[in-house]
């Protein structure tokens, strides 16, 4: 933002405050000369038709208090979209951007009439509801440190909790990109422990130190390919062709979404379908297939069929045990 625009916005704020302001008090508040203030006031009147008036009792003030400085030209629809976007980001990122979002929306809201803003705010809060699922405990400080590290390409030292092994580890990590998958916050980058690009759940990072060391992104890392071959949030492993059959009752739920960039649907005469796609890693696919119960059957690869059978047998044994 230019220094001139900053002054105009501050003058606008001061003229709306209950205090009496003269060229002298405005100059003191802005730390500029009286001549600069008078030039800015003339600029507001000439360029923006600001209804600025003055008298001895009130000093400078707006003759029409409903006038708004069009410094950020937004339509009501655009502000409504921004308000909803802020709520969506808050639903995904939790408290990471809470203060920044509130401040930005409040500043933008001052540029439109109060009654319009109240109507937009009421509509976005009452008529549009976001349900992000289970809440996550995301530390804003760690998230913002990762933002800085990504932007400046600075290596980090983190203490990470691995839920699958219920263990903690310390590792050096070069963060490439922050992203969300299934409402969960992730950072992808090069793990010096595993010697390969890895995903890490940001809310599982216990502590993070941004080091003075810098890094360059591995030239063999192709973000497009990396994310296209991921299913849900699993990466790593050899690209594998997956084929799953879905029965007639389940097929409509599969048709209505695009589950993977490489997917192909093979329709069957009875209304069922076969879904084909290529991914790295099978664990997330296993969990996804089990969600559909008897409505889905893995056709290939054989390793995934074995994983599904093993899971089903283990579940069956648990429920067949005679326990209270």
List the helices and strands and how they pair.
Blueprint: H1 3-16, H2 23-30, H3 34-48, E1 52-55, E2 59-62, H4 76-93, H5 98-109, H6 114-126, H7 140-152, E3 154-162, E4 167-181, E5 184-191, E6 196-201, E7 205-214, H8 223-228, E8 239-246, H9 251-255, E9 264-267, E10 273-280, H10 283-291, E11 296-300, H11 302-320
Antiparallel strand pairs: 1-2, 3-4, 3-7, 4-5, 5-6, 8-10, 8-11, 9-10
Domain Helix-turn-helix type: 11-60
GO molecular function: DNA binding; DNA-binding transcription factor activity
Pfam families: HTH_11, WCX, WYL
Explain how this protein is built.
The protein has 324 residues and is α+β, with helices and mostly antiparallel strands. It folds into four domains: 3-62, Arc Repressor Mutant, subunit A (Orthogonal Bundle), CATH 1.10.10.10; 76-126; 140-221, SH3 type barrels, CATH 2.30.30; 239-320, Alpha-Beta Plaits (2-Layer Sandwich), CATH 3.30.70. 41% of the residues lie in helices and 25% in strands. It contains eleven helices and eleven strands. The chain has helices spanning 3-16, 23-30, 34-48, 76-93, 98-109, 114-126, 140-152, 223-228, 251-255, 283-291, 302-320; strands at 52-55, 59-62, 154-162, 167-181, 184-191, 196-201, 205-214, 239-246, 264-267, 273-280, 296-300. The strands form three sheets. A five-stranded antiparallel β-sheet has the order 6-5-4-3-7, with helices on one face. Strands 9-10-8-11 form a four-stranded antiparallel β-sheet. Strands 1-2 form a two-stranded antiparallel sheet. β5 (184-191) and β6 form a beta hairpin. α2 (23-30) packs across α3, α4 runs antiparallel to α5 and α4 crosses α6 (114-126). It is elongated and about 90 Å long. The chain starts with a helix and ends with a helix.
